[in-house]
């Protein structure tokens, strides 16, 4: 065994010790790192869905298309043209939110001021065409045909 071999053996010994110590250090480090920095899973907060508000369906306003009743609503007489027989009593009802009148153009009948919710009736004893209007709102016109 010469000087060179001894140096080599010493280097190998130190190298081996270094590797062992390095492995121990890694093992210790690895064990430590496993316990730390655990990702915290944030549970998503469930947003409560607002229940859809049920919109109440507005009851359809029944407008008599025939008969002897006339509805006054939304600044109009409905039906706008009504044909009745002689002797028929026609009734107008103010279903609007403002006062109207049922005034015959030729003066056969006149309800005067008809407040909301009030009614006016007139019996047609003669045949003919009776156009009428609202004296408050001249654009409101309608016709009664008596046969
Ligand atoms: Cu009117």
UniProtKB/TrEMBL annotation:
<feature type="domain" description="EfeO-type cupredoxin-like">
    <location>
        <begin position="69"/>
        <end position="146"/>
    </location>
</feature>
<keyword id="KW-0732">Signal</keyword>
<dbReference type="InterPro" id="IPR052721">
    <property type="entry name" value="ET_Amicyanin"/>
</dbReference>
<dbReference type="Pfam" id="PF13473">
    <property type="entry name" value="Cupredoxin_1"/>
</dbReference>
<dbReference type="InterPro" id="IPR035668">
    <property type="entry name" value="Amicyanin"/>
</dbReference>
<feature type="signal peptide">
    <location>
        <begin position="1"/>
        <end position="34"/>
    </location>
</feature>
<feature type="region of interest" description="Disordered">
    <location>
        <begin position="34"/>
        <end position="63"/>
    </location>
</feature>
<protein>
    <submittedName>
        <fullName>Blue (Type 1) copper domain protein</fullName>
    </submittedName>
</protein>
<dbReference type="InterPro" id="IPR028096">
    <property type="entry name" value="EfeO_Cupredoxin"/>
</dbReference>
<dbReference type="InterPro" id="IPR008972">
    <property type="entry name" value="Cupredoxin"/>
</dbReference>
């Amino acid at each position: 065994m010469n000087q060179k071999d001894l140096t080599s053996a010493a280097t190998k010994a130190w190298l081996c010790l270094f590797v062992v110590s390095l492995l121990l250090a890694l093992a210790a480090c690895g064990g430590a790192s496993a316990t730390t920095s655990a990702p915290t899973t944030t549970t998503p907060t469930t947003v409560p869905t607002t229940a859809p508000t049920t919109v109440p369906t507005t009851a359809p306003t029944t407008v008599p298309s025939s008969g002897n009743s006339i509805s006054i609503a939304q600044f109009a007489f409905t039906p706008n043209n009504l044909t009745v027989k002689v002797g028929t009593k026609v009734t107008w009802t103010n279903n609007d939110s403002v006062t109207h009148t049922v005034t015959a153009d030729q003066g056969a009948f006149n309800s005067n001021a008809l407040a909301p919710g009030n009614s006016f009736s007139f019996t047609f004893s003669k045949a003919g065409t009776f156009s009428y209007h609202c004296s408050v709102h001249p654009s409101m016109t309608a016709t009664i045909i008596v046969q």
